[in-house]
Amino acid sequence: MMGKNLTMLQAITEALDQMLGNDDRVMILGEDIGVNGGVFRSTEGLYEKYGNDRVVDTPLAESGIIGSAIGLALNGMLPIVEIQFLAFIYPGFEQLVSHAARMRYRTRGQFGVPLVIRTPYGAGIRGPELHSESVETFFAHTPGLKVVAPSNPYDAKGLLISALEDPDPVIFWNRLNCIGLLRKKFPTKCTEYQSVKQKWSRRKRSDHFCMGAMLREALNATKKIEAEKGWKCEVVDLRTLYPLDRDTIVQSIKKTGRALIVHEAHKTAGLGAEIISIINDEALIYLKAPIKRVTGFDVPVPPFTIEDHYLPTVDRVKQGIVETISF
């Protein structure tokens, strides 16, 4: 039975509230997350409800925030770190890749780091430099880290709870320009929602591949293609970027014989290249056309006046579909 209708932001806040309420080991750390409720208000009301030892306002020091969270995780706590914008994570990158990601390997399985790093990513909000990055391959390329990028509120809540239940560190992305816009119906009973938690990765439909907010552009493009040309296209929603759902990717190619990959990140060495490699390794003989990519460009995300020219748009995705099917 479906009940309330939540935005991505509301779903994230509700998940955080439930996790804090269900387990005293859970705590949230980040800049302005306490008194101010977070730069995007994702922690609004939690400081007042759980106190300043569970919802911790930190200094402006990402390396210190992540390093402290690693120590807390190693000592029995379940920390959730909020980094205000993805590119602000760079000072803490060394803590993640040198310590959090390697701890289980370094200790031969004796210790894990049950840590969640939650941060918004992507362009489209007219932000200044370093507020609009999409550099997921830095993290997906790092052994020991899991990376998730939900496209809708329902998946966001389920995957955030799943991330905290994982014994190793998880990077959790939410798309900046969708955080307050997307809405989805939620079950009235928690048990009806558990299915989201049981799989890291799942398909939406199949035929071309997208991640995070690019699902919206992909679905809108396929609707236009179907209306104009009568071609039926299906879309794979890659909810997790590491691990990738290899089986779904391969089964999609076996079914359709074509692939268009859509992501906002830079094209060179982007996650789309890894998807192409999976297809070449496991489903090459099923391809009926070369694989195409619609991505961001190999430049820094530009200023807001030309930001829209950088992003994959419905028209760019639509053209990619036409070229792939018409080959």
Brief description of this entry?
The protein has 327 residues and is of the alpha/beta class. Helices cover 36% and strands 18% of the residues. It folds into two domains: 197 residues, Rossmann fold, CATH 3.40.50.970; 118 residues, Rossmann fold.
Shape estimate: globular
Helix-strand topology string: EHEHEHEHHEHEHEEEHEEHEHEHH
Mean pLDDT: 88
Distance between the termini: 45 Å
Q: How do the strands line up in the largest sheet?
A: 3-2-4-5-7-6-11
Could you please say which CATH topology of the largest domain applies here?
Rossmann fold
Strand segment tally: 13
Summed up, the domain count is: 2
CATH superfamily of the largest domain: Thiamin diphosphate (ThDP)-binding fold, Pyr/PP domains
Low-confidence stretches: 191-206
Number of helices: 12
CATH class of the largest domain: Alpha Beta
Structural class: alpha/beta
Largest sheet: 7 strands, mixed
Tell me the strand percentage band: 15-25%
Computed over alpha carbons, the radius of gyration is: 20 Å
Percent of residues in helices: 25-40%
**Second CATH tier, the architecture of the largest domain:** 3-Layer(aba) Sandwich
Question: What attributes does this structure have?
Answer:
2 domains; Rossmann fold; 12 helices; 13 strands; 18% strand; 327 residues; 7-stranded mixed β-sheet
Task: Note down, in words, how this protein is organized.
This protein is of the alpha/beta class and 327 residues long. The protein folds into two domains: 197 residues, 3-Layer(aba) Sandwich (Rossmann fold), CATH 3.40.50.970; 118 residues, 3-Layer(aba) Sandwich (Rossmann fold). It is 36% helix and 18% strand. It has twelve helices and 13 strands. The protein has a seven-stranded mixed β-sheet, sandwiched between helices. A four-stranded parallel β-sheet has the order 10-9-12-13, with helices on both faces. Strand 12, helix 10 and strand 13 form a beta-alpha-beta unit. The longest helix is centred in the last third of the chain and has 16 residues. About 5% of the residues have low confidence.
